[in-house]
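assembly run, all chains below
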Amino acid sequence: MLTDLTDEQLLAQALAGDEDAFTALYRRRQGPVFRFALHMSGSSHVAEEVTQDVFVFLLQRGRDFDPSRGALGAYLFGVARNYVRRALERSYSEAMLHSPADDEAQSLVTEDDPADGIARQQTSTALWKAVLSLPEHYREVVVLCDLQELSYAQAAEALGCAIGTIRSRLHRAHDMLGKKLQHSAAAAPGGVSRVTARWAS
Amino acid sequence: MTCREFKHAGASLTLWELSRAQDQQLFSHTDVCHECGAWLQQQRMLASAMQTLRVQTAGREAGPGVERALLRMFRQVPFEATRPVAAHRFTPIALRLSRFFEVGAYVAVAAAIVVGLFLGVRLLEQRTKTAPVQSQSASATTAPAQQNLASAQSVTGKEVALKTHTHPGMSRRLSAAARSTSAQRLNTVAVSQASDDPDYVALMFCDPLICSSDAQVVRMELPATGATSDHDAQLQIADVVVDYDGVVRAVRLVN
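ok done. output:
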C-alpha cells in the first residue's frame, strides 16, 4: 500500500514515473506546504501558486534531495520558503494590501455563539496581521513552530540554521507579537479585549 | 525568584508550555512583580490567539485545480525509470576534486608522452645528421685541408670581402666564409687538420685548454713584403686560422 510508504520511498517511486506515488505524496504533503505559504503571505492565491511551484520543483529537482540531511517535509518547507519570498517580492504591495482581514479571515471557522465567534475571528485576524507585519525571519519561525507545530529541530532543518537561533528568534517574535496584540486590543475594545479578558481569567 | 530568572525560565519554555505553566515559583513571582505578571499574561493571550488561528486554518488546503495541473505536468515529464534517487545524491566536494585531479593526471600523462615522442624524434634526427660528419672527419684525416676548405666554401657559397686598415696606407682584403652551422662544422674539421698540416706556421702558442676547436680558417689576400704602396703591392693568398677570440693562431701561404 502506498500509504504505508515513507515520503522518501514515495518520492523515489514518483521520480521513477509512478503517478500514484506522486499523487499520494502530494496529498500527504500539500496541506502543510499550502498552510505555510498561506500564513507567510496572507493570500490563498499566493499559497496555491507556491504549492504548485514546490511540487513542480520536486518533480524536476527531486533527485537532489538527500534523505541523510533531513526529512522531506523540512525540505519542502525550505523550498516553499524560497518560493514565498519570490512571490512576495514580485507582488509585495499587492499581497500586503490584500490582507487576510479582507478575504482570508472571512473564511475562518466561526463559533456557535455569534458574538464569541466574531470576537475570536477578530482576534485571529489581528494576530494574523501581526504575524504578517513581522520581519521575515521572525515570521518564518512563528509560522513553522507555532502554527505548523514543528519542533525547533525540524524548523532549524527547514530554515537551515541552528536550533539556538530558532529559539532566540521565536522568543523575540513572541515579545513583538504580544505587544502588537495588546495594541490591537486597545484599539478595538469591543472585540479583542473581550476575548483577551476571557483568556486572562 | 528574580525578574531575570523569571525571564530566563520563560524564554526556555515554548508558548504552549508557558500558557499551561503550573510552576509555583513562576506564579509566586508574578504575584510580586507586576511587570512580569503582565508579560506572562501577554504570552498566554498570544498562545490562545495562536491556538485559535491554527485551528481555524487547519483545514485549509490547495484547491483541486493545483492537483490536476500537477498531474498534467507529471504526465509530460520524461522519467528515467532505471535511475534510483540514491544514485543522484549530493556528491561530496572531495570526490569531485579527486575526479578533477584524475582527469588532470590523465592529461598530464598524455602530454608527457607527446613531449617525449617529440624530443625522441628530434634527438634521432640530430643523430642521423651528425653521423655522416663524424665519418667524414674520420676519413678526411688523410685528405688535405685545402680540399675541406674548398668544400666548405662551396657549401656556404657566401663570401664577404672585407677591407680593413691595420696599418696606415695599407689595405687588407679579407674574404670570410659566412658562419653557417654546416660550414662551421667543416671549418672545425679543417682546423683540426690544419694543426696537423706541416705547411701551417703557428703564430703563437696555443694551449689545448684555451684554444677551442671553434676556430675558422679564413682565406685572405695579404700584401707581399716590400710593397711601398697599395698600387704596387703584390697580393699573397694565405689561409689563416682565426680562433674564437679573433686571434690568429696559424697561417699558411697558399702560393
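The radius of gyration of chain A is 19 Å.

Chain A touches chain B through 60 residues (CB under 8 Å).

not gonna interpret more than that til we talk
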